[in-house]
Design goal:
The protein has 141 residues and is α+β, with helices and mostly antiparallel strands. It has one domain: 2-Layer Sandwich (Alpha-D-Glucose-1,6-Bisphosphate, Chain A, domain 4), CATH 3.30.530.20. 26% of the residues lie in helices and 45% in strands. The chain starts with a strand and ends in a 5-residue tail after the last helix.
Length: 141
């Protein structure tokens, strides 16, 4: 089963400031609440996800890499693991006050409960990502 969600938010910062956060795989990992830890090796970042699914104790390794980039406006990444495949997109658009961030995530669960968890928690994840970005950028002029 696949979960496909899209959410947007706006921040009072320039596209370039937000791009610096969301285009960096290590920083991007820090903005995702279920990433317990991560390691970067070349163009691959391995996220160690801690999902509160009883049948999945410990962490799940998800190998992610950027597959499309159009600086400073768009980045798309993909990740694979034994329990799910994931893709994510961040599209940045300037606004009068700063930047609009469109986020799209597709989770293809290979294990029962994975896509249900993400469907139920995506708004909290986007809120966490918004707080992460908002706390690290300065207001736009």
């Amino acid at each position: 089963m696949t979960t496909d969600v899209e959410r947007s938010f706006e921040v009072d910062a320039t596209v370039e400031e937000v791009w610096a956060l969301l285009s960096d795989p290590a920083l991007r990992a820090q903005g995702i609440r279920v990433v317990d830890r991560f390691e970067t090796d070349g163009d691959v970042t391995v996220w160690r996800l801690k999902l509160p699914i009883r049948a999945l104790p410990g962490t799940i390794a998800v190998r992610t890499r950027d597959v499309e980039r159009d600086p400073p406006r768009y980045v798309r990444f993909e990740g694979t693991s034994r329990v799910m495949d994931v893709s994510g997109e961040h599209e940045l658009t300037p606004t009068e006050r700063g930047c609009r961030v469109r986020n799209r995530f597709v989770v293809d669960g290979k294990f029962p409960g994975v896509e249900t968890f993400f469907s139920a928690n995506i708004d909290d994840e986007i809120d966490h990502l918004f707080a992460f970005v908002n706390d690290r950028v300065s207001p736009a002029d």
